[in-house]
Amino acid sequence: MTAVAGGQDAVVAGRGADEDMRSLFGQSAAVFAALTGPAHVVESANPAFFAAIGEERARTGVALADLMPELAGQGFIALLDQVHRTGEPYTGRDVRVMLGLGAHAREAFFDFTYEPRRDARGTVVGIRVIGLETTQVKHAQRLLAEHRGLVEQIARQAPLTDVLDGMARCIERLAPEEVLVSVLLADPDGRRLRHGAAPSLPDFYNQAIDGIATGEGVGSCGTAAHRREAVIVTEIATDPFWTDFRDLAERAGLGACWSTPILGRDGGLLGTFAMYHRSPRVPRDADLALARVFTDTAALAIERHHIEQAKAAADARARAAHDELATVVRAERELRAEAEQRAALAAEITARVRAAAAAQAATPHPERCQLGGADGCEAAAEIKLADSWGDSAWGCPIHVEEAILNVRSVFIASEELGGLAAYLNR
């Protein structure tokens, strides 16, 4: 009797411990479930456990494999079998599990412990499951890593198209449900939106909306750009903003579109960031937060791109101005050199005229040209040249013309215009 009573007391004590566990984890964010027997029948569980696996499956008295058939093939039932067989607890860290089936399946991550439950004799009679869902932490870590990579791309001055395309793909990977991302870039005057990135939208759709106007009622993006505020269209099929684009959206299989304007630090319109969904859907706080984070990132990338464009344009203008200045300097040097040559030639011709004037004392009208310089000139002296100081010389038409072109003070001096006629009729 005593042994029986002692055994009953131990069972009661064990049940009391489970009650304490349920009390401890009852309203906690940690998941807790008490499983019984080798079939791992759910004896009890806290609300967090049922919230994690789906409220529609909130029932007890069912084997875990029947309650959650998606666990088959993921190794968790085998681990429970191992703990039940060996009596050794098992702890997993940041373990990935797919919860739900088909379209309702979701990726989740947990830190958890499988702890054996024992009777008074120490025999394993079940397992306690204690865990903490780390999905949001995992997604946050992924988000930070992806965001850091994008910022590094921007800092390295990667092409804007690469940054925006990478950003769109990143969000599509991070989002818990299927989402298709689009980034449109505003024209400098803010009147139209141009294609920036949309890796998962059909080409015909991207081409159709490339260049849409910004304005009230022009879809989600055109309206968001016009209003400078987010525009949430939860059902494209019935929303008046999509009247002109409804058939296009239906062809692309789009049911909802949430668009956020991308604004610069000065409040100017840079573009729009849109998240499309296949079916009508209302955004959650996490969706809106994700949109804000990446809208700011897109703004950083676009502004950096504009700065680089402006810098490149300024550099091009500076190079053009430098080249133009170099051309002017070369031309000025050439003109100066030519002027110096002309001045030297003028001085030489003036000296010839003076020498010729002195020689005319003996020969008033020489037979040969007196303006040929050191090498002389065998041509006939046909034209008389004079300067403002009264000196004169006779020369051939070629050397006379050279003197007129290079020496300002000389002119043709001829009796009865004979010399001038000879020059004009040369």
Notes on the protein architecture:
There is one protein chain. The protein has 426 residues and is of the alpha+beta class. It folds into three domains: 2-133, 2-Layer Sandwich (Beta-Lactamase), CATH 3.30.450.20; 139-312, GAF domain (Beta-Lactamase, 2-Layer Sandwich), CATH 3.30.450; 360-424, no CATH class. It is 46% helix and 21% strand. The protein contains twelve helices and 14 strands. It has a six-stranded antiparallel β-sheet. β12 (383-387) and β13 form a beta hairpin. α5 packs antiparallel against α6 (160-174). It is rod-shaped. The model is unreliable at 1-14, 21-28 and 416-420 (pLDDT under 50). This is GAF domain-containing protein. Residues 146-312 form the GAF domain. It holds the Pfam family PAS_4.
Short description:
The protein has 426 residues and is α+β, with helices and mostly antiparallel strands.
Give the helices and strands, then pairings.
Layout: H1 2-25, E1 31-36, E2 41-45, H2 47-53, H3 64-67, H4 76-86, E3 90-99, E4 106-118, E5 124-133, H5 135-155, H6 160-174, E6 180-186, E7 192-197, H7 203-209, E8 212-213, H8 219-227, E9 231-233, H9 246-252, E10 256-263, E11 269-277, H10 285-359, E12 383-387, E13 392-395, H11 397-406, E14 410-412, H12 418-424
Antiparallel strand pairs: 1-2, 1-5, 3-4, 4-5, 6-7, 6-11, 7-8, 9-10, 10-11, 12-13, 12-14
Helix pairs in contact: 5-6, 5-10, 6-10
The number of helical segments is 12
Low-confidence stretches: 1-14, 21-28, 416-420
Number of domains: 3
Q: Under the CATH scheme, which architecture of the largest domain would be assigned? A: 2-Layer Sandwich
Number of strands: 14
Pfam families: GAF_2 (PF13185), PAS_4 (PF08448)
InterPro entries: GAF (IPR003018), GAF-like_dom_sf (IPR029016), PAS-like_dom_sf (IPR035965), PAS_4 (IPR013656)
Domain GAF: 146-312
Protein name: GAF domain-containing protein
